[in-house]
Specification:
The structure is a homodimer of 661-residue chains. Chain A is built from 24 helices and 17 strands. The first copy, chain A, has 661 residues and is α/β, with parallel strands linked by helices. In chain A, the strands form five sheets. An eight-stranded parallel beta barrel of chain A has the order 10-11-12-13-14-15-16-17, surrounded by six helices. In chain A, strands 2-3-4 form a three-stranded antiparallel β-sheet.
């Protein structure tokens, strides 16, 4: 793999001046070496893994998956070449070409523009002569940020006008016209996960509360879900580098990782590094929540290099433009910000259009008020101007902008609860109902919509959230932050919220926004990002299993089989985090010989229960148990006879319940 | 505090030879300094905390709690002496006298024998002239283990005979005779948690699925729950050092931490250190699952120094006595082991009496067979002898032993599922039904019983476990291991299982057995123990909240209020893990000045939503919103007028939505 990341210090080239500038944030903490990773570590492919591509109906549809190769199952007394082969296992892969050894990576040039041809062949967009937003133009001319700027920016695309009016290039627009786009086919292949090649597809029935999760996902199914608004494909025409993905209740539950600098920490290269790190571990989308320096430039670097959709909260940047004085915000500044960000390629916007003036007083008696940044900004604006939010009053104009680039709405939950006491109150549910109304308006413009949700909610009050959202928002996808199921564990809020996230994912939530151990305390570092992602992959997968998503249990089966057969390397390699699993095992049994050991340090060789289970199977086989496993079906005489035979065999074979390798 | 733990190396005294021996396990890993803590760190009381005792109806009932002192709420422009006082917060405290600065601690002498007087005054026990078990006697004479032995062992107590038959001294026996013991009163005070002194008792209704959780727990309520078998008080008359606690659906959900050495790691002092560490962080009981060296001696040290009940799995030690050959086990060896352990003071025994011969073949087609150590040992024995388990056939004799010391049953789930595919199968549920039958037999002897449960179970199949257990086991308390809700995350199984544990606790499980990050991979170290405990405190508390346990939400309210008011120290100090919360915050904002900062590094000063919420409250107050908070009730004219007034005030006061300190 030819990798030229932000060049290591040993190399000198023209971009050094730029990359040095990227490493200098306004305020740097003492530990500023934390992101200066060895490039090899960041992009090292996971163990026993290989990037493979599944071709669709045309050669330019190449859907990535990660193929994990497994060891054979040892059979005692049998030549190794005759051991039971375990076929490779394929997993969904969000890491992009970073883990493709054949790819040439140059962060200063960005990723391959994978969707460029599909966008062009639709013939409904045009490349503009320059940026449309005033701010974007001003920034491009700004000498002081020149050294931070991504060099190879294409002129943006936008929908061609149709009969003098703004055109519409959203995936929903195509879907509603019966068109199956290459993106939809790509997604169908991606979601199906090569299930026909899985060995152990056993799983138990789920309870999906009315979801519809077919065994094989077809491109037509994708189209119909998008047309109905039950799912969204977030992919701005100006982010052709993204690998298409879908967010919807009838697809795999997805997770989002938040990154972004603040005035008090982090730099552009740290944020890019967090993004590639996050997608390596499984983030399906990334939100750039920067509030610090150089929001515009940071975002450009991220989008050009991100294989996953990027979301933002445009009001943050708009607020920076008015020096943090919320009441100085105007619709015009916000509108310009939307266009600026859409032309860079942001795939979805969080917009708190449901924070209405009349809901604001409903937060007066709350214990923790308004905890959403965007929500409190808009509340402040409404108070200062004593008038309805411009996000609400100009909502249709926002739709008009978004449809021309295919930016999706993430209708923000500005009034979500920040503690258990505030959960499910009038402010929160009032806003949710308004988001339902706004969804219908957006759909009149074929603009894709997902709905954001809480927050902090005790377990017994979670389902009410899901039920109300389904009812009021016409089945638009739900995208929640947790929820946290208790407030008493700062430092562990990835866990307090994983409980709620798993449950609400089970009930129908389509995407779960991660929470890191740093929640409530500070900006997450790289380890926090990974901890948050693995935790949320757990929650999303637990939800898929409980829903009975077809094929979800295959990975659990494969890993459990490896565990039972003491194929330690396979157990680690099939895990969500092979590195940590291996490292923890090696803390007490580091030698490679132990990787075939039929025990671990938990119990030692005498006590391992898996070690002494094997003969039970032999015994039961002897009783032809596969045909008569019911308790009633086994006659006392049959048991007696079978046991006698087995006892004789057991003693004659050396009294080993478990046959050693 | 006068502390003489295993003496630090700088001191020389008579017990040095012994303590050196305690530090040398059979096999020591390279990192063997990990438990040689500075004694001050181990027993340092948590921040802003003080041990307090609540006296009961008699002076020798002194119930410990931890009192957390809080800062006042700053009010701008008001003298500090007039700030709003926040009363101290009291939390349930499992840490014993280790966190009492007035206590004299000497691990070589053991803890104060708190219950000794209560046991003696009942007059129904006698001190024996020596140990009753052959093994115990042999061990006491064994020169080679002399240097490991706890020196100050009292002769054991046992129930006096009644009319020539074995006496009965269980708490259930007393409860069923209408007797309220001092232990029951102690527990009532402990469970009530000084609720009448809590400030913010607001919480939402729970859904407890039929539990009965009264606002104030009385000693009579405790008695009636124990009499009915719905709760157990695990306290062997030979463990008078333990602080009484209760395990039952109608009480706070409890957690257990497993410790114990194996042939491949850990020493006696490491295990004692893990025990005091675990109780410091909140473990309600400890199980000593040692399988390695010196099980007998290790256990003695643990019991003599443990403020919480200790559980064991006697079959492990019995197996050691026959050199690990399961088929060489006999009822006699097992019986002797029960007596040996009961006379040391073990408070509950895990006994896999439900692993019946007929269930064993039902595991033949399982993916991971039998994962319980005890279960697989008994399965092996049954096969070898082609006869029913001696645990089952001698069950009443076991009851006869246990009632004489008040050891409780933890009826083991030897056939629990080790992966999602095996969950809820015939083997597992068959065993559960047998445990239900055995419960009734135990209750005929007034022996206390709790029932162990799974394991690995997908979320949608968890409630079925709880419902079946309630139905078949006559409401005996349920004690589960997780369950893990997916198999794919070794290294993170504390999280995969926290999801299931929180849910099954909500549904009615009384105690949750923790899982550490090392599950499936190796023996947990000290950090793993803490991670497991904090995670399970989260799960248990989330369950209490969802059940609507009275007063559960008070801590969430207090912490959220501190968070909202930027009382950072209070937020940390009220957290389950104040050290980590503070450490994470300080990573990016370490200066003490920042502890009053009205922001953190997540968003910085301009963006903090809590920072800009304050004026919303003012505004709504101005509208007399507390009387007319309904959307409908606020007339447009009223809103308009109120807003105009507030806008004028807002601008005149310097346009700060948030008043700075």
């Amino acid at each position: 793999m030819t990798t030229s990341i932000l060049p290591p210090k040993t190399q000198q080239n023209a971009s050094d001046k730029k990359t040095d500038a990227l490493k200098t944030p306004a305020h740097r903490s003492a530990k500023d070496t934390r992101f200066e990773e060895d490039a090899r570590d960041l992009h090292r492919i996971l163990p026993a893994s290989q990037k493979v591509y599944i071709q669709g109906s045309r050669p330019d549809i190449q859907v990535p998956m990660r193929k994990i190769t497994l060891d054979p199952t040892p059979i005692q007394g049998v030549d190794e070449s005759d051991w039971e082969q375990n076929p490779p296992f394929y997993v969904y892969d969000t890491s992009g070409v970073y883990t493709d050894p054949d790819a040439q990576i140059d962060l200063t040039r960005g990723l391959p523009k994978l969707r460029e041809g599909w966008i062009a062949e639709r013939g409904d967009t045009e490349q503009l002569s320059g940026l449309s937003s005033s701010y974007g133009q001003a920034r491009a001319r700004d000498i002081t940020t020149a050294n931070l700027r991504f060099s190879h920016i294409d002129k943006p695309r936008r929908a061609k006008k149709v009969n003098g009016k703004a055109g519409n290039v959203t995936q929903m627009h195509y879907a509603r016209r019966g068109i199956i786009t290459p993106e939809m086919e790509y997604i169908a292949i991606r979601e199906t996960q090569k299930q026909h090649e899985l060995t152990d597809m056993r799983q138990h029935d789920g309870e999906s509360f009315g979801a519809n999760t077919p065994k094989i996902i077809t491109p037509e199914f994708v189209r119909s879900e998008v047309a109905a608004g039950r799912a969204i494909i977030p992919n701005n025409i100006n982010h052709p580098e993204s690998e298409p993905m879908i967010i919807g209740r009838n697809f795999l539950v997805k997770i989002n990782a938040n990154i972004g600098n603040s005035a008090l920490g982090s730099s552009i290269d740290e944020e890019v590094s967090k993004m590639t790190w996050a997608t390596r571990w499984g983030a399906d989308t990334i939100m750039d929540l920067s509030t610090g320096n150089h929001i515009h430039e940071t975002r450009e670097w991220l989008i050009r290099n991100s294989p996953v959709p990027i979301g933002t909260v445009p009001i943050y940047q708009a607020l920076e433009k008015v020096d943090g004085i919320a009441e100085d915000l105007t619709w015009e500044i916000f509108r310009d910000t939307l266009i600026e960000q859409a032309e860079q390629g942001v795939d979805y916007f969080t917009i708190h259009a449901g924070v209405l003036l009349r809901y604001v007083p409903l937060t007066a008696n709350r214990l923790t008020g308004i905890v959403s940044r965007g929500g409190s900004i808009m509340a402040q604006w409404c108070l200062a101007h004593h008038t309805e939010s411009f996000l609400y009053t100009h909502f249709e104009e926002i739709c008009e902008i978004m449809k021309q680039y295919d930016v999706a709405f993430s209708l923000g939950d500005g009034l979500r609860p920040g503690c258990l006491q505030d959960a499910n109150d009038e402010a929160q549910f009032g806003e949710l109902r308004t988001l339902g109304e706004l969804t219908k308006i957006a759909w009149q413009h074929d603009v894709q919509v997902m709905i954001e949700g809480p927050g902090h909610v005790a377990m017994n009050r979670i389902k009410e959230n899901m039920d109300l959202q389904l009812e009021t928002c016409s089945d638009a996808p739900f995208y929640t932050l947790g929820p946290l199921t208790t407030d008493i564990a700062p430092g562990y809020d990835h866990i307090t919220s994983a409980i709620g996230a798993a449950m609400i994912g089970w009930f129908g939530t389509a995407m779960l926004c991660y929470v890191t151990p740093k929640e409530h305390l500070g900006l997450p570092n790289k380890k926090d990002v990974k901890d948050g992602i693995i935790t949320y992959k757990i929650a999303a997968h637990a939800a898929d299993l409980a829903k009975g998503h077809p094929g979800a249990q295959a990975r659990d089966n494969a890993l459990s089989k490896a565990r039972f057969e003491f194929r330690w390397d396979d157990q680690f390699n099939l895990a969500l985090d092979p590195d940590t699993a291996r490292e923890y095992h090696d803390e007490t049994l580091p030698k490679d010989a132990h990787k075939s050991a039929h025990f671990c340090s938990m119990c030692g060789p005498k006590f391992c229960s898996m070690k002494i289970t094997q003969n039970v199977r032999e015994y039961a086989k002897g009783l032809d148990a596969s045909e008569s496993l019911g308790t009633e079906a086994m006659s006392a005489a049959g048991i007696e006879q079978g046991m006698q035979e087995m006892t004789e065999k057991y003693h004659s074979e050396g009294r080993q319940l478990y046959k050693e390798v």
